[in-house]
Amino acid sequence: MDATLTDGYELRRLRERDAEELRALIERNRGELAKWLSWAQEPNGHDTRVYIARVHDGEQDGRRLQRAIVCRASIVGDVGLFVDRGNATAAIGYWLDGEHRGRGGRHVGAVMFAGNLAANG
């Protein structure tokens, strides 16, 4: 499931070649991300190649569905659906680059992601 949103935003699958761009984005936003995401609390503790592989593995076994939020060909965050089959629950999580916050991209991304998921399974 890839999707074109509005104002130049789109959702697409994370690719192995995104690792360095994603790492730089995380480093630029680490201070804000660390407030909400435990993995962001350790400097350089987030190996993006391992992360992308884990995303793909989780998608294969149905534990998660995750997409890069892209604006004009640059990754600006990600959004994911995390499934807990044992408790029959799921949660949507997302984060967005500081330069793109307040523009509605996060909300649009989450809504489009959930809507596309519901429509396409």
Secondary-structure map with pairings?
Elements: E1 3-4, E2 9-12, H1 19-33, H2 48-60, E3 64-71, E4 74-84, E5 89-96, H3 105-120
Antiparallel strand pairs: 1-2, 2-3, 3-4, 4-5
Task: Please name the defining characteristics of this protein.
121 residues, alpha+beta, five-stranded antiparallel sheet, 3 helices, globular
Summarize the structure.
This protein is of the alpha+beta class and 121 residues long. The protein has helices spanning 19-33, 48-60, 105-120; strands spanning 3-4, 9-12, 64-71, 74-84, 89-96.
Written description of the protein model:
The chain is of the alpha+beta class. The chain has one domain: Aminopeptidase (3-Layer(aba) Sandwich). A five-stranded antiparallel beta sheet has the order 1-2-3-4-5, sandwiched between helices. The longest helix has 16 residues. The N and C termini lie close together (9 Å). The mean pLDDT is 82.
Helix content: 25-40%
Radius of gyration: 14 Å
Total of domains = 1
Q: Identify the strand order in the major beta sheet.
A: 1-2-3-4-5
| CATH topology type | Aminopeptidase
Major beta sheet, specifics?
5 strands, antiparallel
CATH class category name: Alpha Beta
Ranges with pLDDT <50 over ≥5 residues? none
Q: How much of the residues is beta strand, in percent?
A: 25-35%
Instruction: Estimate the global geometry from the Cα principal axes.
Output: globular
User: Which H/E pattern describes the elements?
Assistant: EEHHEEEH
Q: What's the tally of helices? A: 3
CATH architecture: 3-Layer(aba) Sandwich
- The CATH homologous superfamily corresponds to Gcn5-related N-acetyltransferase (GNAT)
Number of strands: 5
- Average pLDDT metric: 82
Structural class: alpha+beta
Terminal Cα span:
9 Å
